[in-house]
Amino acid sequence: MSGFPPRSPGAGLELRPGEIDVWSIRLDPSPEQVERLGRCLAPEEWERANRFRFDKHRRQYVVGRGALRTLLAAYTGTRPERVGFSYGPRGKPFLAPPLDAGGLQFNLSNSDELALAGFVLGREIGVDVELLRQMPDCEQISERFFSESERQVLRGLPAPKEEAFFNCWTRKEAYLKAVGEGLAAPLDSFDVTLAPGEPPRMLTLEGDAERAARWVFRHLRPADGYLGALAIEGGEWEVRTWSFEE
């Protein structure tokens, strides 16, 4: 899936059961846009932003958080500064009451100057995005984190192998974010497809092919030079993609 057309979220975004919305967010907009998006952050978010050592990382956090608040406000019919968050045991964010009553779930990922945000009703979702960059040591890294079957596939592919590596990495991360584990769960406890052009799916989950088959994946190309993935359990889904414009 590729081609994220630009869209301004505005007010009253509609999301129906069976639909997933995925937004790409540029983290390097104009200084004026950074200032506007930063106005809706809560004091604790500004405290976190100001702990970043480098201006670039502070700006990326402010833009990502401000855009997330803007999108959540549009889906829930409120103002961005009124969006509240609660957090799972491993830090996964959720909407805080009373905005959670509609069942809206979301997930956010960022890499370099791009963020990816996914939204769905009534089901936890995971998204991941990575900058597609040169990694001459990707096979060595796969030996530490990928399953044996994934390592075998990667070894058998012709160079360059970075696309396959990041296909695997984003699919694994998206699944772990959907279940709220982040990198706390072993990355080699499940197998995913990774060869370029092969449909994204989970092959086994802790050795169980039936459990793996319940998971739905989407391969995403949110912008030039970036790869992404979406993971959600069960169902038939229509995935809609947009590029965030303030």
Essential attributes:
246 residues, Ribosomal Protein L22, Chain A, 3-stranded antiparallel sheet, alpha+beta, globular
Could you explain how this protein is built, in words?
- The protein has 246 residues and is an alpha+beta fold.
- The chain has two domains: 6-121 and 235-244, Ribosomal Protein L22, Chain A; 130-233, Ribosomal Protein L22, Chain A (Alpha-Beta Complex).
- It contains seven helices and twelve strands.
- The protein has helices at 31-38, 43-49, 55-76, 138-145, 148-156, 162-178, 209-213, and strands at 6-7, 19-26, 85-87, 93-95, 104-111, 114-121, 125-131, 190-192, 202-205, 215-220, 226-233, 238-244.
- α1 (31-38) crosses α3.
- The longest helix is centred in the first third of the chain and has 22 residues, at 55-76.
- The model has no long low-confidence stretch (mean pLDDT 94).
